[in-house]
Design brief:
The complex is a heterodimer.
Chain A lengths: L1 H28 L16 H10 L6 H15 L13 H6 L11 H29 L4 H15 L2 H15 L13 H30 L2 H8 L4 H29 L3 H6 L8 H7 L3 H29 L6
Helix pairs in contact in A: 1-13, 5-6, 5-8, 5-10, 6-8, 7-8, 8-10, 9-10, 10-13, 12-13
Chain B lengths: L3 E2 L2 E2 L2 H12 L6 H11 L1 H18 L1 H4 L31 H37 L1 H15 L3 H11 L6 H16 L1 H14 L3 H8 L4 H9 L4 H25 L10 H8 L7 H29 L8
Antiparallel strand pairs in B: 1-2
Classes of the chains: A mainly alpha, B mainly alpha.
């Protein structure tokens, strides 16, 4: 087990390294730079643009830029200065001015709270819904659940968010339109908006997987030896049918923890989701690197946890 | 059970022969069979009709829309839905219904062609990986794993930025096909690779090898036809995903440029006026949602129809 984790961590570091190389290469290929007018900035005189590029080291050869950047990142955990939001470092944009002063109020942690809450709701509703749906296959609860989940995976989160704002904020005045961290009321709509799609997806996957498992021979054996149906389900069917489900939970959690553009945009939540898009359109190279590396690190860790969970659910899986 | 034929009581032997006769039904092709089953599924049929209607509307858009696509009318700006403007009009007095229909050209076009591009890449990649196996497979699948490590949307945005900002709509559309195709092929590659990996050990492949068939022939004539079902299901279910991505890109401003309408672009224009003119955002929002619902229901129905054993499962 220990060697397995070490092994996986080493491989993960290689993957993250490769991702940083590919990202860097791609950034070099994209025309325009942070100081040109392509990225929406105002046009500058060529000399000024050159001076700015020299100031931030962008006039150096790409390989040298990459090595300088990665060295600072690895040894000082310094993502460098933001190239477009002058006077801010990427660390400040992502982790706040002083992370340990008020950790819960930093951009990364705000995104993480939103993501984690939505994740728990999605899993907490999705898995039971899928199980119930499978047990009542082709009966009313199943049809109702499948209708809800098909709507759930079909409605884009930005549409759902807008509909909810329209109904609960602008018409009924129950919930505030925007913000995060002042009251629980602010969390209701963003969490539902983000969680619904995942919930529906998890429910459908769980249903399919439970149906598949219930058809297996060992379930018949368990029933044949006279086990109570409740026990057959809890002990034999569920753990095995959850394996495909937790496989998708890793990437899902990683994507949600690192912020989601639309939900944060619609509800004006100060997380890091917006940077995934604005950093690229701004050609803010250091911020792009920062967001991608955070995302892939969280993804790699989430996948590692999933792999460890496999062993818990299915003792036949050994490392 | 005794069977009476032309008033005669049959003996056991004759009865067995008769049963065999009954078993032989008129032969129907797989496509016909699938279609029959699909038509029995009402939700899927309605969804298919909706999709076909939308596709036809997109193609003949100028014939059925009451106004010109970008036709401004400053006498009737920001109107709420009425008989003249089914879905209202925007700040320039352009008819929202007309723009929704024209917008479906972008959404459907990008989703269809993007999915096909992804399918071509994914099927080829997965076929090679699965058929040859061994280190080729190892290397190719590692690459797929690596690609999965990127946030998809960010990757698409990077690619879209390569296209010069003042390009024509045609060039941007081609860029969208390529960008979406290049990131969406991973799942279908895994799917095809898995199928090929298990099938290449089967007897019919061995027979083909023994007859001297080339790898290309075995892949295209023997293995691929046996994988068509899952590929078609994947294709149908990947289209709503791409409709969503296209709307997202247009929302951010990386899709087709105004005044060419797209659903995501219209939503982006409309949502800031939610408080006063909710229909501006609701019309494209509902259009996106309905289309995605239709594709998802149709995809589910198609899966059930193609694979009766798996009926009702994912």
């Amino acid at each position: 087990m220990f060697t397995f984790i070490v092994n996986r961590l080493v491989r993960s570091i290689i993957v993250i390294f490769l991702i940083s190389v590919v990202t860097f290469t791609f950034m070099q290929l994209v025309p325009g730079g942070p100081f040109g007018s392509d990225a929406g900035g105002r046009p500058r005189a060529p000399e000024i643009q050159r001076r700015l590029e020299a100031e931030y080291g962008l006039d150096r050869p790409p390989v040298e830029q990459y090595i300088t950047y990665m060295t600072k990142l690895v040894f000082q955990f310094d993502f460098g200065p933001s190239l477009r939001q002058i006077d801010f470092t990427v660390n400040q944009l992502l982790f706040g001015y002083d992370f340990w002063d008020d950790p819960l109020n930093t951009p990364v942690m705000i995104s993480a709270q939103l993501g984690l809450l939505s994740f728990f709701i999605a899993v907490g509703v999705g898995i039971p819904l899928g199980v119930v749906s499978a047990l009542y296959r082709n009966k009313l609860p199943d049809h109702a659940a499948m209708l809800v989940t098909t709507l759930g995976i079909s409605i884009p989160n930005f549409v759902l968010g807008l509909l909810m704002i329209l109904l609960f904020s602008l018409t009924l005045h129950w919930l505030p339109v925007y913000g995060w961290g002042d009251s629980w009321k602010q969390m209701v709509m963003p969490v539902i908006t983000l969680g619904t799609g995942g919930m529906a997806f998890i429910a459908r996957l769980t249903r399919a997987s439970v149906l598949e498992t219930l058809g297996q021979d060992y379930i018949r054996t368990a029933r044949a030896k006279g086990l109570k149906e409740r026990f057959v389900l809890a002990r034999h069917a569920l753990p095995n049918s959850l394996i495909p489900v937790i496989t998708v939970l890793g990437p899902l959690l990683a994507a949600w923890l690192t912020g989601t553009f639309f939900v944060e945009l619609i509800f004006a939540i100060p997380g890091i989701g917006k940077f995934f898009i604005t950093a690229v359109t701004d050609r803010d190279y250091s911020l792009i690197m920062g967001t991608i590396l955070i995302y892939s690190s969280v993804l790699v860790i989430a996948n590692l946890v999933v792999d460890i969970l496999y062993g818990v659910l299915d003792p036949r899986i050994r490392y | 059970m005794t069977v009476e034929v032309r008033g005669e009581q049959l003996g056991p032997t004759e009865k067995i022969i008769l049963d065999a006769d009954i078993l032989e039904r008129p032969r129907i092709s797989m496509v016909r069979d699938t279609l029959n089953r699909l038509l029995k599924n009402k939700v899927a049929t309605v969804s298919a009709i909706y999709i076909i209607a939308l596709a036809v509307a997109a193609i003949i858009a100028p014939l059925i829309t009451p106004y010109g696509r970008d036709e401004p009318n400053f006498q009737s700006t920001r109107e709420t839905p009425s008989a003249e403007h089914f879905f209202g009009s925007d700040k320039l007095g352009r008819d929202i219904f007309t723009r929704i229909i024209f917008g479906s050209r972008v959404s459907l076009g990008v989703a269809f062609i993007g999915s096909f591009t992804a399918m071509l890449i994914g099927v080829t990649y997965g076929a090679i990986s699965g058929y040859f196996g061994g280190w080729v497979d190892d290397l190719m699948m590692r690459f797929v794993d690596l690609m999965f490590g990127f946030p998809t949307l960010l990757f698409i945005i990077l690619m879209m930025l390569i296209i010069p900002p003042n390009s024509s709509t045609g060039l941007i559309m081609v860029g969208l096909f390529v960008a979406l195709g290049l990131v969406s092929w991973l799942n279908v590659a895994r799917l095809v690779r898995g199928q090929f990996l298990s099938m290449r050990e089967k007897e019919f492949v061995e027979a083909a090898v023994a007859l001297g068939a080339s790898p290309f022939r075995i892949m295209s004539r023997h293995l691929l036809p046996n994988t068509i079902g899952p590929i078609v299901i994947w294709l149908t279910l990947s289209i709503p995903g791409l409709i969503l991505v296209e709307s997202t890109l247009s929302f951010i401003g990386l899709g087709v440029k105004p005044p060419v309408p797209s659903w995501g672009g219209m939503l982006a224009e409309g949502w800031r006026a939610m408080r006063t003119l909710p229909h501006l955002a609701l019309a494209p929002g509902i259009a996106i949602t309905l289309t995605m619902i239709a594709f998802n229901f149709f995809g589910d129905g198609l899966r059930d129809a193609l694979d009766p054993m798996m009926r009702g499962r994912e």
